[in-house]
């Protein structure tokens, strides 16, 4: 027999949610059914990865959560302690491309969201510098994007997402274009930031290894229209580092996640 939870417990667990998608579908104007129905609940402060085959709707799910697009059916809710947020508010978005303005300094790139939000220049500059320091780029505020490596550009993009102090950070394959050493370093720095700042992170990746290394939960999606294929909790000693990356537990999780992903690729060409 399933015991029903007392209502106070249910309320407490609901307010602990940062993001909740219920029965969400997305059909684009061209008739492509990209998502769903998708059900996903992310607790405040949690780090989850979305993993799935190309075109299964991972970016679409992020865009719905960010309020950049609307669901065709179902509900998307985003909240924090004080209550529900307007779609798009309290959210930072990091894309695969750093998309920096080449004609202006790193500091001005990071200050952009504050400028658009009407924050005074002096305060904006101070906050941009603090965000740059948090990603290890304190000395590069006056540099121009062309003077930075790919990894540094991605750090600037991360600083720009953090500068508004969002509750939720959405990251769409941010490190996919980077070499492995840079990617590992950024993985570690992102984990340190997450531990220090306590934000909710939803991270899209194609890499089983990266998803297991970073996340508390790996959510595996089916092929389009994307639904949840598996939801795998990664129990690992914190803070994670090389010890975890080279452990038997890490390999086991990678095997489990790969096995959960395999049906999503059946029938698809791997070429
Ligand atoms: N604006 C759009 N109009 C029409 N179809 C779209 C649009 N955006 C995405 N799609 C389609 O919706 C499906 C899901 O796309 P989405 O980008 O969300 O997938 P994804 O899982 O993030 O893919 P990838 O891993 O390759 O980045 C794809 O078939 C894509 O072609």
Task: Please explain how this structure is put together.
The chain is α/β, with parallel strands linked by helices. The protein folds into two domains: 20-90 and 167-271, Rossmann fold (3-Layer(aba) Sandwich), CATH 3.40.50.300; 100-165. The chain is built from nine helices and ten strands. Strands 6-7-8-3-9-10 form a six-stranded mixed β-sheet, sandwiched between helices. Strands 2-1-4-5 form a four-stranded antiparallel β-sheet. Mean pLDDT is 89; it is low at 1-14. Residues 28, 30, 32, 34, 52, 54-60, 224 line the site of adenosine-5'-triphosphate. GO terms for molecular function: ATP binding; ATP hydrolysis activity.
**Helical stretch tally:** 9
Which value, in Å, is the CA radius of gyration?
19 Å
CATH superfamily of the largest domain: P-loop containing nucleotide triphosphate hydrolases
CATH architecture designation of the largest domain: 3-Layer(aba) Sandwich
Write the element-wise H/E pattern from the N-terminal end onward. Answer: HEEEHEEEHHHEHEHEEHH
> Major sheet: order of its strands?
6-7-8-3-9-10
- Through-space gap between termini: 48 Å
Low-confidence segments, given as residue ranges, are: 1-14
